[in-house]
């Protein structure tokens, strides 16, 4: 059965993938945006121009009706956050803004709210432990992770009071065509033949291809059994940092200059340069246990890591 979907974050690369997946299914998609922007053709725009969704409860169209919200919009994690109070700024967007959208959507008839959180709500590493399951006690370490966990809890409480079905999804790093940030920087460096100290980094990192994430979110929006659930999602095949770099080099047809620097030396360099957190994200494992969504909903990633990387590299080679 097709549904009326309200989507936030629709102009980002994840939002585009989710929009396309919903439209393929035949759903009616309305994007909540701050300014008229490029959305996927076939998506209707709802303009709420104030930051942090401050005006969303006042400017909702009288004709708006929705069945499900998929909430992607967030104040994202950045390495050098220049906000005077990064935690307060993250809370205003990721907690208060999320609740404003939930209240407006509930008044518009929404019965379910799919909240795209982050594995950072649990922590930065699975080092020395099994892959992180939904049962691991959360210990977020930065303003982004803290605010995402607080949003999960606030939404869950709102759902209990209002009857809104809340589904929480925690992805790890998302990659795919139009990816930005660190993943794009890595591809740029490999394509240019920049020597990188990645040859001996055996830490495994879970990731998820953007079209796998879009498919998982569709299941969370439509499956009756998803109501009230918390899901960790990934591609199900965790590469080491070294394997990831070599796969990208092979698909980019680049030489791939990967230096075999001992991890201990990299950690020392991180401490001396004040970049311990960045180095730790390279050297520490962050593996996600995504079996629960398979057991509960029968979901399996429709694309392999190799397919996801190939689509990402094909986009990169066509645009750079």
TrEMBL record:
<dbReference type="InterPro" id="IPR001509">
    <property type="entry name" value="Epimerase_deHydtase"/>
</dbReference>
<dbReference type="InterPro" id="IPR036291">
    <property type="entry name" value="NAD(P)-bd_dom_sf"/>
</dbReference>
<protein>
    <submittedName>
        <fullName>NAD-dependent epimerase/dehydratase family protein</fullName>
    </submittedName>
</protein>
<dbReference type="Pfam" id="PF01370">
    <property type="entry name" value="Epimerase"/>
</dbReference>
<feature type="domain" description="NAD-dependent epimerase/dehydratase">
    <location>
        <begin position="5"/>
        <end position="228"/>
    </location>
</feature>
<dbReference type="InterPro" id="IPR050177">
    <property type="entry name" value="Lipid_A_modif_metabolic_enz"/>
</dbReference>
């Amino acid at each position: 059965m097709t549904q009326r979907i309200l989507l936030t974050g629709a102009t980002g690369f994840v939002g585009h993938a989710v929009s396309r997946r919903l439209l393929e299914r035949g759903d009616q998609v309305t994007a909540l945006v701050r300014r008229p922007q490029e959305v996927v053709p076939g998506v209707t725009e709802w303009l709420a121009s104030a930051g942090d969704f401050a005006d969303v409860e006042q400017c909702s169209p009288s004709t708006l009706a929705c069945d499900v919200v998929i909430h992607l919009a967030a104040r994202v994690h950045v390495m050098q956050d220049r906000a005077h109070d990064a935690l307060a700024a993250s809370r205003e967007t990721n907690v208060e803004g999320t609740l404003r959208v939930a209240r407006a959507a509930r008044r518009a008839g929404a019965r379910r709210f799919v909240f795209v959180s982050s594995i950072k709500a649990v922590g930065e590493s699975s080092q020395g432990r099994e892959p992180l399951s939904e049962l691991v006690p959360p210990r977020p370490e930065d303003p982004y992770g803290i605010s995402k966990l607080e949003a999960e809890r606030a939404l869950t409480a709102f759902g209990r009071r209002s009857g809104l079905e809340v589904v929480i999804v925690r992805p790890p790093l998302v990659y795919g065509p139009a990816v930005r940030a660190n993943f794009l920087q890595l591809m740029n460096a490999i394509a240019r033949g920049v020597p990188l100290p990645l040859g001996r980094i055996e830490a495994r990192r879970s990731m998820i291809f953007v079209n796998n994430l879009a498919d998982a979110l569709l299941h969370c929006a439509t499956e009756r059994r998803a109501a009230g659930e918390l899901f960790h999602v990934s591609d199900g095949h965790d590469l080491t940092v070294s394997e990831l770099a070599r796969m990208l080099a092979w698909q980019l047809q680049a030489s791939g200059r990967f230096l075999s620097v001992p991890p201990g030396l990299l950690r020392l360099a991180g401490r001396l340069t004040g970049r311990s957190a960045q180095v730790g994200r390279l050297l520490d494992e962050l593996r996600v246990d995504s079996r629960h969504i398979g057991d509960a909903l029968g979901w399996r990633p429709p694309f392999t890591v190799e397919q996801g990387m190939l689509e990402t590299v094909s986009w990169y080679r066509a645009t750079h």
